[in-house]
Write a structure and sequence with these properties.
By secondary structure, this protein is α/β, with parallel strands linked by helices. The chain contains 18 helices and 26 strands. The structure holds fructose -6-phosphate.
């Protein structure tokens, strides 16, 4: 995920910007750059690769005002031209987030005579601000941002003037004495100050050495409170959360939005995958897809199977990558390799095996430039930002979103789904980030539940259809970080064997949100209750009936049946997290596990 730094004061800006950017390195990046006003003009230094390399090539820059950026590529390759800052005339811009309508804006600006050098959405912003500039930087930024759909944290430099703004992407202002800072997060500048102002959505800050003035997008002054931070550096990197995993669970409203932003058009009922370049005829020829993946990504793949079969009428085989590479039968004509790291050796080996049959290949991954991205025909990035906790959380929900979009895209192209239905499904999708936020706000219920059951030795997670992969994922998460034995089962399969294990000592987490199989799941709940199992139901917030059959209910907002598994996912993630915390486990680095598994 990109990082922003800014400085306006009396010291040399460049070393402070470089130092701040280094403190944002943990977020992950593929290129970096700074722009400093050296009392004559803005000087830009940027390149792909590490900040330390950029630093080595810097001359002695005298200016005391500047902006900096670490880029995690979304639009355009990770290279020097696409690295930030981007300039237009004497204006320099760094930006995090995604400008969803950048194509439309770009066409408008090209028509007005602007020349684009990069493939980024950010360059649009630089030209747009330049376009509106009439001797007032703040007002030019306001006018430009009013034209933008999407998310942004942005820092703009012109001469000694610096303006920052945000919408759905984090940005803080650090207050010093005779100097002020901006940054994507607190740790970036915690070395210089402990006094911070946390910017809210649609706010702008004019940052001068001796004061910072805040405005709303309509130029109305805004009063802001100062927050004094007493965290140490390690706590600061986790933004005050006790663990990266909890931080990453909480980042999901933003990461989920990032996964679909710019890829949907509700007005036209369209899914946009520009790089895919598939025609309706080509999609009609795909009669079978093979998904290859491991672990959590495999669970996402199983969810993908339900999606593709339901929405696009295409049969999907989900293959465990480490097994598939020894298979003797050919995969489907299209193979989707899912891997958050893009480096998993088992998935790579299976992918190479699939390619030997001549199948077309798509990678769904989070890491730009990962090995997997270099071996497939097409890459769809999940855009979750870096995930530090070993247990995958936000990358999983982003994988679910990407698969949802792909299934809709294929279904539209092969005529299996109507434009009207896509419009309705996009409308439901857009509600998910806010619904996830509501679950996170109610996390105390999940924590209490975890407290009650943390001493259990065995757990079961059950669900049917779209919720079955989430039951598997719930069990996997719990195993990984709490070391409790847990099984995920298709609820209807319990009676074919595992029911023998059910007793008063095996809590059962039943995903019982409303949908086609709701009544059947309730019957399965009754089966386990009859064997004395304590049952925790994940159910819709308006489902009063369910209380009669279970011991605890964790409620989620009512959502479309196909999308509500995303909400249940957040619950099982929180449950695993709180159980592991009760048991004092090493949550971010569980024993025996690694974030990137590069051995077969
Ligand atoms: C679970 C987890 C692992 C990975 C698996 C595949 O939390 O992280 O199960 O999902 O090792 O990794 P990727 O997705 O990087 O291929």
């Amino acid at each position: 995920m990109c990082g922003i730094a800014g400085y306006n004061g009396k010291q040399k800006a460049a070393p402070i910007l470089i130092d701040s950017l280094k403190r944002l390195e943990y977020r992950g990046y593929d290129s970096a750059g700074i722009a400093v006003f050296d009392n004559t003009s803005i000087k830009v230094y940027k390149d792909k690769g590490k900040i330390a390399e950029l630093e080595k090539g810097l001359p002695d820059i005298t200016g005391s005002v500047g902006i900096g950026h670490t880029r995690w590529a979304t639009h355009g390759r990770p290279d020097k031209v696409n690295a930030h800052p981007h300039t237009s005339g004497d204006i320099a811009v760094v930006h995090n987030g995604i400008i969803e309508n950048y194509q439309t804006l770009k066409e408008r600006l090209v028509h007005s005579g602007y020349t684009f050098v990069s493939e980024t959405d950010t360059e649009v912003l630089a030209h747009l601000i330049n376009h509106y500039y009439r001797n007032n930087l703040k007002e030019a930024v306001m006018s430009a941002l009013k034209d933008v759909t999407g998310s942004y944290a942005v820092a703009v430099l012109r001469g000694t003037e610096m303006v920052a703004a945000r919408k759905d992407s984090p940005l803080v202002v650090g207050l010093g004495s005779g100097e002020n800072f901006i940054a994507s997060d607190i740790p970036a500048v915690l070395k210089y100050t402990r006094n911070f102002i946390l910017m809210d959505n649609m706010e702008l800050a004019c940052v001068y050495p001796d004061e910072v003035l805040f405005f709303d997008i309509n130029n109305k002054p805004v009063e802001k409170a100062v927050t004094i931070i007493d965290w140490d550096m390690e706590a600061a990197e986790k933004s005050g959360y006790d663990h990266f995993m909890l931080k990453e669970i909480h980042e999901q409203p933003v990461s989920i939005h990032g996964a679909f932003a710019g890829r949907i058009s509700e007005l036209e009922g369209n899914i946009i995958f520009e790089d895919m370049g598939l025609s309706g005829e080509q999609v009609k020829e795909i009669s079978r897809i093979s998904v290859i993946a491991c672990g959590t990504s495999l669970n996402a793949g199983l969810f993908g199977k339900y999606l593709f079969e339901h929405l696009a009428g295409i049969h999907v085989d989900v293959e465990i990558a480490s097994e598939f590479r020894y298979a003797h039968s050919p995969p489907g004509s299209l193979v989707i390799a899912i891997s958050q790291s893009g480096e998993t050796a088992d998935t790579l080996a299976a992918l190479r095996q699939a390619k030997s049959y001549g199948s077309g290949t798509i990678a769904v991954t989070n890491v730009i430039g990962g090995t997997i991205t270099r071996e497939v025909d097409c890459v769809v990035y999940t855009r979750s930002g870096p995930e530090i906790g070993v247990a995958a959380t936000k990358t999983f929900t982003s994988q679910l979103i990407v698969l949802y979009l792909l299934a809709l895209y294929f279904g539209k192209l092969n005529g299996k789904i109507s434009t009207d239905k896509i419009k309705r499904m996009i409308s439901s999708l857009k509600k998910i980030p806010a619904q996830v936020t509501r679950i996170l706000e109610n996390r105390e219920v999940v924590r209490e539940c975890a407290e009650n059951f943390a001493s259990s030795n065995d757990f079961f997670f059950i669900g049917r259809t779209f919720n079955y992969p989430i039951a598997l994922e719930g069990a996997l998460k719990l195993k990984e970080i709490s070391y409790i034995h847990a099984e995920g089962y298709a609820a209807g399969e319990l009676k074919h064997g595992p029911l023998a294990l059910i007793s008063g000592k095996t809590p059962v987490v039943a995903i019982a949100t409303r949908g086609l199989t709701y009544d059947k799941v309730v019957s399965n709940i009754k089966e386990v209750k009859a064997r004395d199992a304590p049952v925790i139901a994940i159910a819709d917030e308006n489902d009063i009936e369910i209380e009669k059959y279970v011991d605890m209910v964790i409620r989620v907002p009512a959502a479309d049946e196909i999308l509500s598994p995303l909400l249940s996912t957040v619950v099982v993630q929180l449950l695993s997290y709180y159980v592991a915390r009760e048991r004092n486990c090493s949550i971010d680095q569980p024993r025996n596990l690694a974030k990137s598994v590069t051995v077969e």
